[in-house]
Write a structure and sequence with these properties.
globular; mainly alpha; about 10% strand
């Protein structure tokens, strides 16, 4: 968690109006993480949301400056695909599954490099680099089509009928 604080401080200094919205179930050891977010939450700079309805989640993805997928290991990480499908930009850890799923439609960073994560986020949220953000959004729209219902459902039908 110290890395998140170190990563967030320079970004918050450059972008003081930036808000951090963390969406999802609180996982293992969440109490220490929430404790570190508490000062930001009390100032109204950070929000922890659970059980967000799908329609609201799509709005959050669409209006976020970036959706950050910072996993060290992941099975699929659908949140990035949802963000892309909603018209958002994705910043993701440089792990094999993210490259497989997101292709060239995400800004990647070493999940063990706090400074690299901060630079990747900044590359996407900085208004002076809006071309990169728009490029990722356009590429994300194409990548997310691979996972559309009309593409995936026929594949599942073929697979299930083969059993």
């Amino acid at each position: 968690m110290t890395g998140v604080q170190t990563c967030a401080l320079p970004i918050l200094e450059r972008f003081p109006a930036l808000k951090l919205v963390v969406v999802g179930k609180l996982g293992w050891h969440h109490k220490s993480i929430v404790k570190k977010f508490r000062p930001w939450m009390e100032r109204g700079d950070a929000f922890l949301l659970e059980d967000v309805p799908s329609a609201d989640l799509r709005l959050l993805y669409k209006h976020a400056r970036a959706t950050v997928c910072p996993s060290f290991g992941e099975g699929f990480d659908f949140s990035g695909v949802e963000a892309m499908k909603s018209g958002g930009a994705v910043v993701a850890s440089d792990i094999p599954v993210h490259h497989e799923i997101y292709a060239d439609a995400a800004e990647f960073f070493n999940p063990y490099g706090v400074d690299e994560a901060a630079r990747a986020i900044e590359n996407v949220i900085d208004p002076t680099r809006s071309a990169r953000r728009h490029e990722l959004i356009a590429k994300g729209a194409l990548v997310s089509q691979r996972y559309a219902h009309e593409v995936i459902l026929p594949q599942w039908e073929v697979f299930l009928k083969s059993l």
